[in-house]
């Protein structure tokens, strides 16, 4: 009861504001809600804005960016955007799931989109995406195995937990596919927030002969990259393009192309294909993941290796290659993926 | 002549009410002016921008409630800073104290099973104790070893952040991708009122605290002693005020209040302790306290101003291409002006009375 | 030089305002070559302000200043010094860790090659200049180790080194023993005879009469008279200063000391700020119904002694009893035991200058106005208003910060607060420091009333006039020890002065008898 009164008040208030601002064009209006780190994070928020910029051009849309300062401000930001009536409200981050669902229930006609979250449908008027990070990990594992001089590569996970195992399995599968003789070291620093620990673990791997190490460890990754810089080896970044963090020593970054995911959401509203409740998967074939290439890692990867990436994409699209998802594996499973390949010892030996 | 002057001065002259408002209003006015020029430089119409800001923070229940949400944590941190600064204790550790209070509330909120009537009070007490504990250390170091509480508080802020980070990302982390503790039980939740805003019963607690301390400051023996202590601790001590004891008491209250601010966040807004949940409410509290002239009622007004700026910010971002930084710039300008005035006054007072400060034991010629 | 006119300084129509307060009204004054010209007046009369204008520290709002017949406007002391004006401030501006010679040349160092300071020449020059004016000083002595009187000489030499023709001395005797004062006066005469002009700011009339050629009296920013020092009496000058004639000695009946000891200090030892033995095992007692004065040159342990009694400093050894209760290092408990304390450090200890006057009057009386946890603010303010009237605190309103009052009125606030406490022991530290004559009189009368009401009064003062005016018994402190215990009516300032200067020390055996004497007084 109270809520509906409040909603009414809000609608009236915003209607008034809307009229006075004279923004009654036919343009597609998009609101992007950033996560609390806001713009300038050189990560998801900045990347999503890139997607918005492209969508603005391609679909005659206009977008605004709302930057809440804290997770506690997500709901009010989404609700007020909903009250103002955008064509779609796009957000990211797991922490936005609950606030967006709350608001979506109160505004059943408003379209919402949330990028890079889990596989569960979020509601009848929310589309969401899952990034097939295991396919991205597969790709960088493949590149690493093709590039290593020692035949040994490493993996530094933030924590020994399933969501991180998913990266490792993809990485392992890609490396073995590129060269079955490649040795892949698996390690977990136990923290997502300690660069010093990341550096220690990485130096240990380098001592074992690894010359390329994939960092999937949040802020700990900075230590992994730092170790690469110090020892003149390579690190591989994750999530966003981290090549800039040590130009010449970051081989590439396994980026989640949230820009493409957000772009597609605007597109679906523009062309009328928006389907509430849909969960779309973004893998290698959908350009949802990629190995970041820019000036910072120019020339580090052989052209021949890069040329093969398109072949891999095609094979994944055709189903010739199916990169195993850790969540589909059972403990002790001996083989995985298509074509089948021996599972890493951590899975094979698990009870 | 003196007699007339005495009689002519009523106990609460009108000038006494207006004068303390002048300085903060000037600061705000300058900030608005500079902000307006900035907006102009960015190619927008300042009048339109400010009217959106006012509209987006005050007009309509949703906007107004968001403003109240935004000001809620500042009521606590602002009050915490205000009462300590007023007593001459430079507690700039409200951020850390709030985090520790939030952590305590978050743990009690999920780990204890109690009916609402007990659960909320227990979680609030835990939060108060958490903040208090974090303020006790600088207070005791100050009293025992004469260590500057400002420095100790400053150092304790990141320690609180890291410690709570360790608890919420390792020790007691809830399953899932977010670094947080498990959600608090419904029995510990402070009720919210609206879809649009997480403003909750904690706001009322903050408001009541400010009013209570307005009375404490203005009408009690303790409040009187703290004020004297703040302006000249040696005089207060000489005059029979138990300065060390009161200093510890004020720091404990200050820390406890900041800790309650953490409870407002966790029990009311987040419903769980989130790692790194605060965008700097403890530091904003310093600005609020300064704008408030360290007066609890002023804290309510200053928190409302900052809350309105931040609340209106989201609407401004939706209605114009301006980013959240405009509002932050406005706040920074206010803080800058206040800080300038403050240090000017501070240095001025030192310059005027060098013997009093420079040579505590022997002020005479020599 | 031969054409130097008689009037080396000629100030006419100078006005100085601070906001809407006019500190100097249309002041005119001449200083002749070779004279000692005293400027006397109460505190706040404008003496220092006028001289600061002459020295270039303050700009003037109107009027002209002529130096050697030429109009001048100094924008800073550097220009004044260059023009031949030197000033010795009440607070010395010396670098304590430097030698005498270093201090004298500081700022106008003689240079050898390559920008190096020519130390040999500095020492030679210093020695020469001190010989020339009969100011005996070792150029290599470290200033921090010198007694106050010698440090003052360094300041004077510093101005002479810069070839000052006109010397302004701001309250130069405040820190000196009578012997040192006499030497200073001799120096002043020597300088005057050698053609220098001395402007001598003071409020001690005896000194004015002793040394000056002419006397200008200031009152409330005006120069009310300039007199030749011939046949003028202290009473006349005092009358001009305050606008009415005053008693220079408070009238009091003979003390009726009772046997009840209200302050007992026994074998007290305390360390000073630098860890030195500032109070070195001293004992004495003050009884109900007597005023005991503690005489001594500043810095001989008075501050530390009083702080120990007040509970602001923790003694190393010995004990203090206040009204039969053992004192502790907690002012709250000592006050509860019956102590009222008027500290010398008004701005640092005795008042909160930034707080309102009513608040300053209420501290120490908080419990009287306590209503449970609350404070009866109305009652406290009403009482403060009454005290302001009763003690005639001028320029006071309840909410005005105490710091806005003049020194004398600040002192009245302290005294009003402390002496209205129900306390049987009163300690008054420099009660008339920075207080004008009118106020001194009333402060002294109040202290005598306290005594007559059966309280014990302990007065610490650097001013011998004050000690003699008030005390029934005089203790002299020198280097942390009581070196003399004298009956005021049976001694004289010269004797006390000798004890103060350490020139006459009670023989070691007498130390015990001194403390015994404390038990057998009268």
From TrEMBL, chain A:
The cellular component terms of Gene Ontology attached to this UniProt record, alphabetical and capped at eight, are: plasma membrane
Q: Which Pfam families match?
A: Bmp (PF02608)
Lineage top rank: taxon:
Bacteria
Membrane topology qualifier: Lipid-anchor
Keyword terms: Cell membrane, Lipoprotein, Membrane, Signal
The taxonomic lineage of its organism, from the top, reads: Bacteria, Pseudomonadati, Pseudomonadota, Alphaproteobacteria, Hyphomicrobiales
Say which family it is in: Belongs to the BMP lipoprotein family.
Please list the residue ranges annotated as the ABC transporter substrate-binding protein PnrA-like domain.
30-325
Name where it's found. Answer: Cell membrane
Protein name (database record): Basic membrane protein A
The record's InterPro entries line, in alphabetical order, gives: BMP_lipoprotein, Peripla_BP_I, PnrA-like
Gene3D superfamilies registered for this protein in UniProt: 3.40.50.2300
Which species expresses this protein natively? Prosthecomicrobium pneumaticum
Span of the signal peptide: 1-26
TrEMBL record, chain B:
The signal peptide stretch is: none
Q: Which GO terms describe its molecular function?
A: transmembrane transporter activity
InterPro entries found in the cross-reference section: ABC_transp_permease (IPR001851)
Recorded topology in the membrane: Multi-pass membrane protein
Where would you say this protein principally sits, based on its record? membrane
One term under GO cellular component: plasma membrane
Q: What is this protein called?
A: Simple sugar transport system permease protein
From TrEMBL, chain C:
SMART domains xref list: AAA (SM00382)
Q: Which Gene3D superfamilies match?
A: P-loop containing nucleotide triphosphate hydrolases
According to Swiss-Prot or TrEMBL, what is its membrane topology? Peripheral membrane protein
The entry lists its GO molecular-function terms as: ATP binding; ATP hydrolysis activity
Compartments, record wording: Cell membrane
* Gene Ontology cellular component terms for the protein in this record: plasma membrane
SUPFAM superfamilies the record matches: P-loop containing nucleoside triphosphate hydrolases (SSF52540)
User: What keywords sit in the KW lines?
Assistant: ATP-binding, Cell membrane, Membrane, Nucleotide-binding, Repeat, Sugar transport, Translocase, Transport
Main localization category:
membrane
Q: Which PROSITE patterns match?
A: ABC_TRANSPORTER_1 (PS00211), ABC_TRANSPORTER_2 (PS50893)
List each copy of the ABC transporter domain by range.
9-245, 263-504
| Entries under PANTHER family matching the protein | CARBOHYDRATE TRANSPORT ATP-BINDING PROTEIN MG119-RELATED, GUANOSINE IMPORT ATP-BINDING PROTEIN NUPO
Q: Which family does it belong to?
A: Belongs to the ABC transporter superfamily.
- The name this protein carries in UniProt is Simple sugar transport system ATP-binding protein
Species for this entry: Prosthecomicrobium pneumaticum
């Amino acid at each position: 009861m109270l809520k509906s009164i409040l909603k009414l008040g809000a609608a009236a208030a915003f209607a008034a504001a809307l009229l006075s601002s004279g923004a009654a064009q036919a343009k597609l209006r998009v609101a992007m809600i950033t996560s609390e780190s806001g713009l300038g994070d050189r990560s998801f928020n900045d990347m999503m804005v890139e997607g918005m910029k492209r969508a603005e051009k391609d679909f005659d849309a206009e977008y605004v960016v709302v930057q809440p300062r804290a997770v506690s401000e997500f709901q009010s930001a989404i609700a007020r955007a909903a009250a103002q009536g955008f064509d779609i409200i796009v957000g990211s981050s797991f922490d936005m799931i609950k606030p967006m669902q709350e608001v979506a229930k109160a505004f059943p006609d408003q379209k919402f989109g949330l990028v890079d979250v889990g596989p569960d449908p979020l509601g009848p008027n929310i589309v969401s995406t899952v990034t097939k990070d295991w396919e991205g990990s597969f790709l960088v594992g493949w590149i690493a195995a093709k590039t290593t001089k020692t035949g040994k590569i490493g993996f530094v996970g933030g924590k020994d937990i399933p969501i991180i195992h998913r990266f490792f399995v993809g990485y392992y599968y890609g490396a073995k596919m590129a060269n079955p003789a490649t040795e892949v070291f698996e390690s977990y620093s136990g923290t997502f927030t300690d660069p010093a620990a990341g550096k220690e673990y990485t130096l240990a791997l380098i001592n074992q002969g690894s010359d390329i190490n994939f960092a999937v460890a949040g802020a700990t990754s900075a230590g992994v990259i730092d170790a690469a810089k110090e020892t003149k080896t390579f690190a591989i970044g994750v999530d966003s393009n981290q090549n800039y963090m040590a130009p010449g020593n970051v081989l590439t970054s396994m980026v989640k192309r949230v820009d493409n995911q957000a772009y597609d959401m605007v597109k679906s509203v523009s062309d009328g294909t928006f389907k509430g409740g849909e969960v779309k998967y973004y893998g290698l074939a959908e350009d949802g993941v990629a190995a970041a290439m820019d000036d910072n890692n120019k020339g580090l990867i052989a052209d021949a290796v890069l040329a093969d990436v398109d072949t891999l994409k095609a094979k994944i699209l055709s189903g010739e290659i199916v990169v195993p998802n850790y969540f589909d594996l059972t403990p002790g499973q001996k083989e995985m993926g298509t074509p089948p390949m021996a599972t890493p010892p951590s899975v094979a030996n698990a009870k | 002549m003196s007699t007339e002057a005495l009689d002519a001065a009523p106990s609460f002259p009108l000038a006494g009410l207006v004068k303390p408002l002048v300085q903060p209003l000037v600061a705000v006015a300058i900030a608005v002016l500079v902000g307006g020029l900035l907006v102009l430089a960015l190619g927008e119409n300042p009048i339109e921008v400010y009217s959106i800001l006012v509209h987006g923070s005050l007009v309509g229940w949703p906007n107004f409630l968001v403003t109240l949400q935004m000001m809620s944590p500042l009521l606590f941190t602002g009050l915490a800073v205000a009462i300590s600064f007023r007593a001459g204790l430079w507690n700039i550790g409200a951020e850390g104290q709030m985090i520790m209070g939030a952590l305590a509330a978050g743990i009690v909120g999920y780990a204890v099973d109690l009916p609402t009537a007990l659960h909320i009070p227990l979680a609030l007490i835990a939060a108060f104790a958490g903040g208090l504990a974090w303020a006790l250390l600088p207070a005791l170091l100050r009293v025992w070893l004469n260590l500057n509480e400002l420095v100790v508080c400053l150092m304790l802020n990141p320690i609180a952040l890291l410690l709570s980070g360790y608890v919420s990302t390792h020790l007691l982390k809830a399953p899932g991708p977010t670094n947080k503790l498990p959600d608090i039980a419904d029995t510990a939740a402070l009720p919210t009122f609206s879809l649009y805003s997480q403003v909750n019963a904690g706001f009322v607690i903050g408001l009541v605290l400010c009013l209570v301390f307005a009375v404490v400051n203005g009408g009690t023996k303790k409040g009187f002693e703290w004020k004297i202590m703040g302006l000249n601790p040696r005089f207060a001590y000489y005059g029979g005020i138990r300065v060390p004891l009161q200093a510890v008491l004020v720091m404990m209250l200050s820390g406890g209040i900041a800790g309650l601010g953490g409870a407002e966040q966790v029990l009311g807004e987040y419903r769980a302790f989130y790692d790194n949940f605060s965008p700097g409410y403890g530091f904003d509290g310093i600005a609020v306290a300064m704008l408030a002239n360290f007066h609890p009622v002023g804290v309510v007004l200053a928190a409302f101003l900052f809350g309105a700026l931040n609340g209106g910010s989201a609407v401004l971002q939706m209605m114009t291409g301006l980013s959240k930084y405009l509002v932050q710039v406005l706040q920074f300008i206010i803080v800058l002006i206040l800080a300038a005035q403050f240090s000017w006054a501070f240095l001025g007072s030192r310059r005027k009375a060098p013997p009093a400060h420079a040579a505590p034991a022997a002020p005479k010629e020599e | 030089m031969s054409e130097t006119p008689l009037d080396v300084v000629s100030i006419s129509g100078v006005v100085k305002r601070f906001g809407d307060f006019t500190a100097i009204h249309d002041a005119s004054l001449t200083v002749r070559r070779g004279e000692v010209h005293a400027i006397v007046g109460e505190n706040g009369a404008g003496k220092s302000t006028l001289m600061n204008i002459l020295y270039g520290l303050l700009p003037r709002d109107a009027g002209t200043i002529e130096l050697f017949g030429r109009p001048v406007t100094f924008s800073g002391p550097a220009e004044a010094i260059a023009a031949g004006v030197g000033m010795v401030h009440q607070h010395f501006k010396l670098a304590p860790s430097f030698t005498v010679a270093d201090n004298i040349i500081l700022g106008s160092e003689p240079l050898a090659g390559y920008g190096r300071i020519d130390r040999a020449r500095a020492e030679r020059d210093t020695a020469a200049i001190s010989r020339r004016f009969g100011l005996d000083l070792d150029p290599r002595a470290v200033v921090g180790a010198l007694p106050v009187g010698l440090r003052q000489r360094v300041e004077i030499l510093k101005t002479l080194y810069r070839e000052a023709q006109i010397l302004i001395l701001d309250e130069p005797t405040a820190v000196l023993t009578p012997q040192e004062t006499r030497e200073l006066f001799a120096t002043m005469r020597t300088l005057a005879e050698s053609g220098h002009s001395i402007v001598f700011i003071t409020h001690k009339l005896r000194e004015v009469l002793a040394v000056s050629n002419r006397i200008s009296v200031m009152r409330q920013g005006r120069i009310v008279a300039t007199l030749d020092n011939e046949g003028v009496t202290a009473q006349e000058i005092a009358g001009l200063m305050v606008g009415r004639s005053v008693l220079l000695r408070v009238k009091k009946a003979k003390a009726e000391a009772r046997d009840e000891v209200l302050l007992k200090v026994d074998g007290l030892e305390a360390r000073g700020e630098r860890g030195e033995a500032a109070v070195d095992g001293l004992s004495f007692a003050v009884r109900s119904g007597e005023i005991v004065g503690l005489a001594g040159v500043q810095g001989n342990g008075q501050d530390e002694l009083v702080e120990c009694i007040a509970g602001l400093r923790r003694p190393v050894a010995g004990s203090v009893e206040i009204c039969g209760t053992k004192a502790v290092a907690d002012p709250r408990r000592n006050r509860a035991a019956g102590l009222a304390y008027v500290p010398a450090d008004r701005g640092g200890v005795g008042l909160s200058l930034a707080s309102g006057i009513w608040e300053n009057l209420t501290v120490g009386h908080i419990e009287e106005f306590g209503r449970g946890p609350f404070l009866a603010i109305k009652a406290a303010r009403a009482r403060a208003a009454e005290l302001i009237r009763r003690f005639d605190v001028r320029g006071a309103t309840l909410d005005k910060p105490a710091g806005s009052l003049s020194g004398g009125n600040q002192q009245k606030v302290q005294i009003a607060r402390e002496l209205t406490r129900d306390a049987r022991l009163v300690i008054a530290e420099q009660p008339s420091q920075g207080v004008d004559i009118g106020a001194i009189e009333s402060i002294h009368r109040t202290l005598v009333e306290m005594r007559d009401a059966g309280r014990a009064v302990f007065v610490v003062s650097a001013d011998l006039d004050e000690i003699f005016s008030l005390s029934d018994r005089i203790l002299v402190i020198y280097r942390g020890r009581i070196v003399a215990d004298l009956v005021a009516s049976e001694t004289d300032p010269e004797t006390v002065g000798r004890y103060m200067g350490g020139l006459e020390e009670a023989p070691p055996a007498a130390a015990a008898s001194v403390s015994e004497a404390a038990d057998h007084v009268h």
